[in-house]
Amino acid sequence: MLRFKILYLERSEINEIGFAENDRNCVQLQASTIDGRRKGACLFCQEYFMELYLLAELKTISLKVTTVDMQKPPPDFRTNFEATPPPILIDRGMAILENEKIERHIMKSVPGGHNLFVQDKEVATLIENLYTKFKMYVTKFESADTKEASQPLMSHLERINDFLAKRGTRFLTGDTMSCFDCELMPRLQHIRIGAKAFRKFEIPTKFTGLWTYMANMYELEAFRQSCPADQDIISHIKNQLGLRTTARIELETPIFTTSIPIVAET
């Protein structure tokens, strides 16, 4: 059984996931920018957390997740990694620091990891640039015609919805999870929470294929355990894109939105 030391992601209070008894994979995330304790909303952190969690459920690895407050990193983190931001994966004393290298390591070196990395060019093309369109939408000057501004994002979501409805599977490439789901779902959650917070945009309830897919993802512990609070998503987007919000999110009780519209349940 392969042993991982630490994957540094965004900080949170996360308990050890004891699926295996001996060897251990440790994951560290970047901390919440609000309180320095909850897991933050780094997309790559959640993506790799989900992939490793799925493998831990299968008992091919053991997994321990910890977090790092990058505003006040612990001395051992500063000594070993200086200002390198999470995610960081440590496997048997070897630190993997870059996103592409972490993904390649999970695929090639983690037991069972290759099963997550299926080949599907249609899906890869389908989900590409979705988050870029979301960022363009929320940073664009808010004109009177917000519907026109949201059109590229809306059109892309509609394409994903139509693809899912036509394919008729629980997940993007079939009825089992793949790396594409771990990539897409955190971004959909950011879009759901962030677009509503900054532009009062909501994913249309008529996109039943997309909502059914999100409902399937919400049922998974891999997503629930890795999902940041709504407030942390808003804070992450605000800080990353230089946006403003009148909400005092730092004073709010953390909320984790995983409900779906009633119309999408039918």
TrEMBL record:
CDD domains named in the record: GST_C_CLIC
GO CC annotation: apical plasma membrane; cytoplasm
Membrane topology (UniProt): Single-pass membrane protein
Subcellular location: Membrane
Domain (CLIC N-terminal) ranges: 33-106
GO molecular function, one term: chloride channel activity
UniProt keywords, alphabetically: Membrane, Transmembrane, Transmembrane helix
Domain of life: Eukaryota
InterPro entries, alphabetized: CLIC_N, Glutathione-S-Trfase_C_sf, Thioredoxin-like_sf
Pfam families: CLIC-like_N
Family listed: Belongs to the chloride channel CLIC family.
PANTHER family on file: CHLORIDE INTRACELLULAR CHANNEL CLIC (PTHR43920:SF5), CHLORIDE INTRACELLULAR CHANNEL, ISOFORM A (PTHR43920)
Protein's recorded name: Chloride intracellular channel exc-4
Species of provenance: Asbolus verrucosus (Desert ironclad beetle)
